[in-house]
Design a protein that fits this description.
With 432 residues, this protein is mostly beta strands. The protein has a single domain, classed as Outer membrane protein transport protein (OMPP1/FadL/TodX) (Porin), CATH 2.40.160. A hairpin with a 5-residue loop joins strand 8 and strand 9. It starts with a helix and ends with a strand. The N terminus is likely disordered.
């Protein structure tokens, strides 16, 4: 039994390739700019600043001059867990430590001719980070007590004005992903921490195309569409380290660890990221002061069905089943121009989860979400400043049905998961 438990130690740790800080569908981060965030990221048909390189690069054709946009969105997630009360057991609880994760968005764009515009952007559309308090005692420590994943896209794109008010954009999403996580594996009989597993590595670069369309038949109506292709992020022979955390007198753990080939291990895997599609319509009032937009966003999460873990030691190989389904979001935003310097924004999002109920766990405590956002912009000369706030309220979910856990493994804590995230954004744009 002890040997089996040690064989699974590093494999269980890699499950966190799919864990979630993220506050949108699955582990996506849709907040690529501060002003867009204030609008609930209903921005596909507007796309009038640098973040168009994510939301809809065809918007570059309707901008003027050269522009630099720099944005930072701080994400402060909160996760809570309340365990399932069974006969003879105490109610187990858990809470994530307070952390602030910074999501970048930096863009440059230019419009050298009447027909051609281009730009390049850097942003982070997929990521996570969660650190559980009291890691040595946390009931979910068999899965994770500290994980960080960052996925960075660099997107160059060109937009061409095909006709009056009609633009087409083509680009390339160049992505790299970094993973680091730490977990404990308790000794099975007494529950004491025996092995600490650390995994760290960067994926191979991945390049896929992106497409944008924008039609503005009148000065008051804009229709936009964007599509980012799905990706497969490959990790080849990345480091996995097993550390014996038992007292020196407990020689059995050291012996079994040596039997696995020692602390230093390698692992290879592939993580599928979904395609993203958005359709949006924006309408401006007759006096030009109010613009409202509604977007429908679709994520192709069904490719995230399972995760194959291929270790250098074949005895550690494992396949993890997630069973995701495609998901969708409805995003609404409005912007009111107070005067030639000040604009106010507000937004609302309904976000459906791609995660089936039986997959709810510390790996991905995902749920349907309601997002509420506000923001303000201030213009002075060639400078635009923006500040935004969004709160993301997750619907509580439980991995128990009719009093029975939906998973057969005892490695997963069973109970109810709650999530909340506060997002604070700032952005600076300069036109020259």
């Amino acid at each position: 039994m002890r040997k089996r438990f040690l064989l699974l130690a590093p494999a269980l740790g890699l499950l966190l390739l799919g864990a979630s800080l993220a506050h949108a569908s699955g582990f996506s981060i849709y907040e690529a700019g501060s002003r867009a965030t204030a609008l609930g990221c209903a921005f596909t048909a507007t796309a009038d600043d640098g973040s168009a390189l994510f939301y809809n690069a065809a918007g570059l054709s309707f901008q003027t001059g050269r522009n630099v946009d720099v944005n930072i969105v701080g994400v402060a997630p909160q996760f809570k867990f309340a365990g399932h009360l069974t006969q003879g057991d105490d109610l187990q609880t858990g809470q994530a430590a307070s952390k602030l994760y910074l999501v970048p968005g930096a863009y440059y764009s230019a419009h050298p001719t009447d027909k051609v515009a281009y730009g390049v952007g850097m942003y982070a559309p997929f990521g996570l980070g969660v650190v559980w308090k009291d890691p040595e005692e946390w009931v979910g420590r068999r899965i994770s007590h500290d994980v960080q994943i960052q996925t960075v896209y660099v997107t160059p794109a060109v937009s061409y004005m095909l006709g009056e008010g009609f633009a087409l954009a083509l680009g390339a999403d160049i992505a790299s992903q970094h993973l680091s996580l730490t977990k404990f594996t308790p000794e099975p009989q007494f529950g004491t921490n025996a092995i600490e597993t650390e995994i760290s590595g960067r994926s191979e670069p991945n390049i896929t195309p992106t497409l944008g369309l924008m039609l503005r038949p009148t000065s008051r109506v804009s229709v936009g569409a964007m599509y980012h292709w799905g990706k497969t992020m490959k990790f080849e022979n990345r480091a996995a380290t097993l550390t014996n955390v038992q007292a020196e007198g407990e020689t059995w753990a050291a012996a079994l660890l040596d039997g696995l080939g020692g602390s230093d291990q390698t692992v290879s895997s592939e993580l599928n990221l979904p395609s993203m599609m958005s359709l949006g319509v924006a309408v401006t009032s007759k006096d030009g002061k109010l613009r409202v937009e509604g977007d429908y966003v679709y994520f192709g999460w069904r490719t995230f069905r399972e995760l194959d873990l291929d270790f250098g030691n074949n005895a550690l190989d494992q396949t993890i089943h997630f069973g995701y389904q495609d998901s969708w979001q409805m995003r609404f935003g409005g912007e009111y121009t107070v005067n030639d310097k000040v604009r106010l924004q507000a937004g609302y999002v309904y976000d459906t989860t791609p995660q089936p109920l039986k997959a709810v766990s510390p790996l991905l405590p995902d749920s349907n979400r309601n997002d509420y956002s506000v923001g303000v912009s201030y213009k002075k000369g060639s400078w635009d400043l923006n500040a935004s706030y969004m709160v993301v309220v997750g619907t509580p979910r439980t991995n128990i049905a009719a009093g029975e856990p939906l998973r057969s493994s005892n490695d997963y804590p069973f109970g109810t998961y709650k999530s909340l995230a506060n997002l604070f954004g700032v952005g600076v744009r300069h036109n020259f």
